[in-house]
Amino acid sequence: MANDQVRNVVICGSGPAGYTAAIYAARANLSPFLIAGPQVGGQLTTTTTIENFPGFPKGQDGNQLMMDMEEQAKNYGTEIVYEKATAIRPEDGHYVIETTAGPVRTHAVIIATGASPRMLGLESEQKFWNYGVHTCAVCDGGFYKGKTVVVVGGGDSAMEEATYLTKLCEKVHVIHRREELRASTIMAERALATKNMVFEWNSVVDEVLGEVEGDHKKRVTAIRLKSTKDGSTREIPASALFLAIGHMPNTDWIKGTIDLEDSGYVKIGSHLETNLEGVFAAGDVHDHHYRQAITAAGFGCQAALEAERYLVRKGVAG
Ligand code: NAP
């Protein structure tokens, strides 16, 4: 991939923000170059039906929605590589993006690398990671058909994951650290009315318990809960723990080059600009407030329009 060509705009990330930026940049004849990143299609590929993306009266499968966005971006002239961006640095009036397949040079950059699921930070969570500890019910719920599982979190993601799991599992315990859900009313009501879903209020996960035989024979047998009221502990027999406690922005690769908020999200100006001229951010990588597919897509559109204006000012685009 390494050559001296300086591209107009490189988009890092392949979620709704990245693909929307690509579609707009491609239709503006900017021949965008998109570095898809480690999770092609982003977070929506790990969800079920998207019911709130306009244009789909009966909802749409998340994976399908992202494949369609990818195809649309390609059809209008986006070049996509399935690699990971690892760093950005300014060089001779343009930027170099280091990737897992070598450097790419560009005048403008759109950072749309999204966010990843937050972890609890327990040693046992790492020990049983992928062997009973998961972050995606759609991807891994099938392993626990007819079993009892635990979901931690009180937001929309937790309700969505837990609701999905109730269709496969005998029983789903939802662990929440308070006694009031953060989830939207419709999702909360649906979850609270589900028969085989049990809520464990005012509780946090203290430890993931299980059996280990060698490197790959591990299984979760129970989750130890701790009361946030009195610190008492108790165990729930369960075969898996699904984490749904929010997300962290994927900004490690730009730390030190792009200004970040204390929370790790990209610091942006009113037009999605970062501290580097010609470098914009779009979607969950900067937006910790809305975090919706449709808002990410909207930010992708804005970033592409801003990048185009920047390229015109710079005399690169007409
Ligand atoms: P969220 O709204 O930030 O909720 C995270 C939940 O995890 C909260 O209930 C929080 O508890 C809990 N939590 C955080 N850290 C924890 C820890 N260390 N231990 C225990 N619990 C912890 O995240 P989200 O559910 O992923 O949703 C993110 C955004 O996406 C929201 O805007 C949501 O509406 C949207 N979303 C929408 C849909 C949909 O419409 N289909 C689906 C999924 C997500 P507290 O409540 O006590 O803070």
CA distance, first residue to last residue: 26 Å
| Approximate shape | elongated
Helix content: 10-25%
Alpha-carbon Rg, integer: 21 Å
> The CATH topology of the largest domain, please?
FAD/NAD(P)-binding domain
**If you average the pLDDT, what whole number results?**
95
Secondary structure tally: strands:
19
CATH superfamily of the largest domain: FAD/NAD(P)-binding domain
Query: What composes the largest sheet?
Result: 7 strands, mixed
| Proportion of residues in β-strands | 25-35%
What does this structure look like?
The two termini are 26 Å apart. The chain has two domains: 6-116 and 247-314, 3-Layer(bba) Sandwich (FAD/NAD(P)-binding domain), CATH 3.50.50; 119-243, FAD/NAD(P)-binding domain (3-Layer(bba) Sandwich), CATH 3.50.50.60. 24% of the residues lie in helices and 30% in strands. Strands 1, 2, 5, 6, 7, 8 and 19 form a seven-stranded mixed sheet that branches. It has a five-stranded parallel sheet with strand order 10-17-11-12-13, with helices on one face. The protein has a three-stranded antiparallel sheet with strand order 14-15-16. By secondary structure, it is an alpha/beta fold. The structure holds NADP nicotinamide-adenine-dinucleotide phosphate. Residues 52, 120, 152-158, 160, 177-178, 182, 184, 204, 244-247, 291 line the site of NADP nicotinamide-adenine-dinucleotide phosphate.
